[in-house]
Amino acid sequence: MPHLRIVVIASAAAVAGYLAFSLWVVLWSNDVALKGDVIGTWKSFAVLAFGFWLGSSSGGKQREADAPSGKPGDPIAVAPEEPRP
Questions:
Q1: How far is CA 32 from the centre of its chain?
Q2: Rounded CA separation 82/85 (Å)
Q3: Which residues contact 76 (CB under 8 A, 6 or more apart)?
Q4: Eight-state DSSP code of residue 50
Q5: Where is this region: Disordered (predicted)?
Q6: What pLDDT shows up at residue 4?
Q7: pLDDT by residue, tens only, the chain of 85 residues
Q8: What is the pTM of this model?
């Protein structure tokens, strides 16, 4: 498993490289389709970052309404049972 510093540096380098490419495309390129693709990629990245922030900020806050009724020694049902009349 790579060290955290390596992952952070590689990720920062990738984002910085794409930022440089994006600036070139938006400021100096005349290709409208490429500009749209680059802007769309940054929009998708922003949505992903917001979703990650939202998910991580609400993590662990959900609680069960009722405590489990089973005891540690109770058997676990693995197939649905028919209701008894």
A1: 29
A2: 9
A3: 70
A4: H
A5: 57-85
A6: 87
A7: 678 899 899 999 999 999 999 999 999 999 999 999 999 999 999 999 998 888 877 766 666 666 667 777 777 767 777 777 7
A8: 0.59
In a domain, residue 65? The reply is no
CA distance 40 to 43: 5
31 is a domain residue = yes
**Helices and strands per DSSP (H, E), number in the chain:** 2, 0
The domain total for the chain is 1
Give me 31's structure tokens: 């290709």
**Residue 85: inside a domain, yes or no?**
no
In a domain, 72, yes or no: no
Q: What is the DSSP letter of 59?
A: T
